[in-house]
Amino acid sequence: MSVFAWMAWTWPTAIFFAGIALLLMFMTVLEVISPSIERRGFLPIETSRGDRLFISLLSAAYIHLAWLGLADLPLWYGSIVALLWAGVVMRWA
Q: Does residue 81 sit in helix, strand or coil?
């Protein structure tokens, strides 16, 4: 019996967590190659690249929850909204 047998792993779940792990590894390599400089955008705080990634991931969770609660459209549309918002945060925040 596997240690993770109690978890309900599905392919979409595994792809999601693998994607997050790859994103974190990419950001680590990028930080080593080119250290981030804090900057001030439309958010009222100075943020580094990692801060903006965290804000994007947290925002994506809230966008998906709001989409599930308020919209009757498929969740894929909410994912597109979350990706667009992440692009805005990473570029201009």
A: helix
**Residues for the chain: how many in total?**
93
CB 12 within 8 A of CB 64: no
Q: How many CB atoms lie within 10 A of CB 78?
A: 19
Low-confidence ranges of the chain (pLDDT < 50): none
Domain boundaries, the chain: 1-35, 38-93
The pLDDT of residue 1? 56
pTM, two decimal places: 0.81
The continuous run of DSSP H or E covering 78 comes out as helix 75-92
pLDDT for position 51:
93
Asked if 59 and 85 touch (Cβ cutoff 8 Å), the reply is yes
Contact 27, 56 (CB under 8 A): no
